[in-house]
Design brief:
It is found in: Cell projection, Cilium. This is Intraflagellar transport protein 80 homolog isoform X1. This protein has 777 residues and is α+β, with helices and mostly antiparallel strands. About 1% of the residues have low confidence. The protein has 13 helices and 55 strands. A hairpin with a 2-residue loop joins strand 50 and strand 51. The strands form 14 sheets. It has a four-stranded antiparallel sheet, with no helix packed on it. Strands 2-3-4-5 form a four-stranded antiparallel sheet, with no helix packed on it. It has a four-stranded antiparallel sheet with strand order 6-7-8-9, with no helix packed on it.
């Protein structure tokens, strides 16, 4: 990825340009110390003077009123705030009319910023004050006051906090009066510029110590640049939070959100005092000290999938290379490309007006349809369909271009969704809520309606990243997520009535990804790269989970690596310095998944015998129990030396009825309530009581015996035997109540138990013979 710079031969402004701001993706306003406000049209290349300000107004900062929030029709900003050196800020219309001028600070007003909703304006000045104003320019409050000038300010993503500079310090102050203020030393020189991104929640700062730094919203350092030759005079996040731009003397740099640099350009600009990203995130404009306005387009983005590499060579042109035969195709578009995604044998490209869907089998005939809103901020792909996110909503389309659904929930803000907070599979859409970060909304892909009985998935901590598995049946769909403690959890998305268990899979997990071919999960865990070959093991037999993992040392990936993709058996990881590392994992677990999904148990056993690896046998054991194939489970457990489990499986085989077998298989996986339910529904009350006795679940055993008026003496006898073994006296009131005046006769009890077992055998054989008769007929 690099920047394509365009700079006019002669500057349009006579003095230094102090600030720039985009109205649409093709129109920019610039303000200069020559008192002119100039409009630039990038389509025609024309510039025109909008207004000449009075000679005593020297503009310092400009920010357009946020557009299209709540008003769907409004496609471009209509007014902006301009701060100036005379202590005032001015509300100016698009046509250049000064609607209002407000005395705001003693000395220059160094920055002014609208919040995301457009309901409040914050200004900061040389007098060290931070003031909040209403939309119409009425003073609401003075948020803070200090002895040094405040050079820069930014709103938090939820518009509830303000970040500002104080010399070498950064301060985050909430608008609530008594809330905790966060303050830390960020630079060794005065901080000149800050920016806070609403999507990634990351903070940028730049200072006179010639460094730029990336922080999280708790003030923890994520990246610290090397010193440049000159002070960093401007920084700005791209709207989607994936890139940022850095400006200095004769320097413009494009960086990834983790800090490493994609491109460095040295245009003849003087210092770049202000950087603004276009609304679609495809180009940047810089306000230059020598009167120029520099424009830079982000080009040469790359997308890779299997043997295809797609490169954006120009604004409207892509090059596709097939590395197997070196065939090259050129794709031309009518408008400039904004976003693209390559996965599942399809390339999806969104331009400013249309969406193109290419198949990797045929690059010549794309499917084209018009977009509803315009600027697409995110494209996600699954095997059967893809998801587009724009300012107006979330839309699901098939690869044939057919609109499928558009999920909605109260208070949905699509402008802050990214690949970590939205996940897509063939049948489910998951979205993490921004208003309450402990909640995940789950939707049916085909209808856009809430999944199951409409219950939300809620967790005890804030959730950072979510990912749906891609394969298997809808009823078995799982979602993995990382919370703010960096713990990895897995749970089922199917939510009917009973609360689904949320089970912890790992700790200190920084990034995760599901394979696109089978349900294998990988993640970077502290200092290890971990692959969960069969994450479902936690629901079947948690004891053998460690045996189903593959782990290797991850120190080679340095600090803060990120998993880019997991295609087939290849995992791509981006290191903190921007380099890509490819890891190949064993292909055998994927083949095992394939055999099991096709119920080819003999082939699965044969594969495990061929590979001779404990992880494979452990995976097969868990898969067999999950699919109720106890013969295969017995072979697999024997291979990993779990003798107690082999014996238990053998005892299950000897049980007389299929309901009993089913119940004991459920118990094997720890689903005791479900096991009990199966027995009670089949009328096997004694067996249900017996499993509670075997588990020392005395309260429940007695409850069932009393409820069904049977085997109360059996429960009391076993309880008495249990207490005698440990030399204890009965203290449970309910047991004392029922034991009163009851003589325990073990002979009688054994006879009753024999009778129950005989009854079950007879029932089982009669149902079997009736089945056979039915088959004969």
């Amino acid at each position: 990825m690099r920047l394509k710079i365009s700079l006019l031969k002669e500057p349009k402004h006579q003095e230094l340009v102090s600030c720039v701001g985009w109205t649409t993706a093709e129109e920019l306003y610039s303000c200069s110390d020559d008192h002119q406000i100039v409009k630039w049209n990038l389509l025609t290349g024309e510039t025109s003077q909008i207004v000449k300000l009075p000679d005593d107004i020297y503009p310092i900062d400009l920010h357009w009123f946020p557009k299209s929030l709540g008003i769907k029709k409004q496609t471009q900003a209509e007014s902006f705030v301009l701060t100036s050196s005379d202590g005032k800020f001015h509300l100016i219309s698009k046509l250049g009319r000064v609607e209002k001028s407000v005395e705001a600070h003693c000395g220059a007003v160094l920055a002014g910023r609208w919040n995301y909703e457009g309901t409040a304006l914050v200004t900061v000045g040389e007098d060290g004050q931070i003031k909040i104003w209403s939309k119409t320019g009425m003073l609401r409050s003075t948020l803070a006051q200090q002895g040094t000038p405040v050079y820069s300010v930014a709103w938090g993503p939820d518009s509830e906090k303000v970040l500002y500079t104080a010399g070498k310090q950064l301060i985050i102050k909430p608008l609530q009066p008594n809330a905790k203020v966060l303050q830390w030393k960020a630079h060794d020189g005065i901080i000149l510029k800050v920016d806070w991104n609403s999507v990634s929640d990351l903070i940028l700062s730049a200072g006179e110590d010639c460094k730029y730094k990336v922080w999280d919203s708790y003030g923890r350092p994520l990246y610290n640049s090397l010193p440049h030759e000159h002070p960093i005079t401007s920084v700005a996040w791209a709207p989607d939070g994936e890139l940022f731009a850095v400006g200095s003397f004769h320097t413009l740099r494009l960086c990834d959100k983790t800090g490493w640099s994609y491109a460095l350009e040295k245009p003849n600009t003087g210092s770049i005092f202000n950087i603004a990203w276009s609304i679609d995130g495809t180009q940047i404009a810089g306000a230059c000290g020598n009167g120029h306005v520099v424009f830079a387009h982000v080009v040469e983005q790359r997308w890779e999938w299997k043997n295809f590499q797609v490169t954006l060579t120009k604004r409207r042109t892509m090059q596709v290379r097939n590395v197997l035969n070196d065939a090259v195709d050129l794709l031309e578009f009518r408008d400039r490309v904004i976003k693209a995604s390559l996965n599942y044998a399809h390339l999806v490209v969104s331009t400013s007006l249309q969406c193109y869907v290419f198949s990797t089998k045929n690059w010549n005939t794309p499917l084209i349809f018009d977009l509803k809103e315009g600027t697409v901020s995110l494209i996600l792909q699954a095997e059967r369909h893809f998801l587009l996110v724009d300012g107006g909503g979330i839309y699901l389309y098939s690869y044939e271009g057919r609109f499928i659904s558009s999920p909605k929930f109260p208070g949905m803000r699509t402008d802050i969704l990214n690949a970590q907070t939205v996940s897509l599979s063939n049948d489910t859409i998951a979205i993490k809520d921004k208003a309450d970060e402990k909640i995940i909304f789950l939707f049916e892909a085909s209808t856009g309606k809430p999944l199951g009985d409409g219950k939300l998935l809620s967790h005890k901590n804030e959730i950072l990243e979510i990912a749906l598995d891609q394969k298997g049946l809808t009823n078995d769909r799982k979602i993995a997520f990382i919370d703010k403690n960096r713990d990895l959890y897995i749970t089922s998305v199917k939510r009917f009535g009973k609360e689904e268990q949320i089970i912890k899979l790992g700790t200190m997990v920084h990034t995760l990804a599901w394979s696109d071919t089978c349900n294998i999960l990988c993640g970077l865990q502290d200092t290890r790269f971990t692959v969960w070959y069969y994450p479902n093991t936690v629901y079947v037999d948690r004891d053998i989970l460690p045996k189903t993992l593959y782990e290797r040392d991850a120190s080679e990936f340095s600090k803060n690596p990120h998993i880019v993709s997991f295609v087939g058996n290849q995992v791509t990881i981006r290191r903190a310095d921007g380099s890509l590392v490819h890891i190949s994992i064993s292909p055998y677990p994927a083949i095992l998944h394939e055999y099991v999904s096709g119920s080819k148990w003999e082939d699965a056993v044969r594969l495990c015998r061929f590979v001779k690896e404990q992880t494979m046998w452990a995976c097969l054991a868990a898969m067999a129990v999950a699919n109720r194939d106890m013969t295969t489970a017995e072979i697999a457990y024997a291979a990993i030396g779990e003798i107690d489990k082999v014996q238990y499986i053998n005892s299950i085989k000897d049980l007389p009825s299929k309901e009993s077998k089913m119940a004991h298989i459920l118990m094997f996986s720890g689903n005791i309530q479900e096991a009990e339910m199966v027995l009670l529904q089949a009328g096997l009350v004694y067996q249900a009581i017996q499993i509670n006795i075997n588990l020392y679940n005395w309260e429940r055993a007695l409850e069932l015996a009393v409820k069904y008026k049977t085997h109360v003496d059996t429960v009391l006898a076993y309880r008495q035997k249990f207490l005698e073994t440990f030399g204890k006296q009965e203290t449970n009131k309910r047991y004392l109540q029922y034991a009163e005046g009851l003589q325990i006769d073990w002979e009688k009890i054994r006879a009753k138990i024999e009778m129950e077992i005989t009854k079950e055998r007879e029932r089982s054989s009669s149902s079997q013979s009736s089945k056979n008769v039915g088959l004969r007929h």
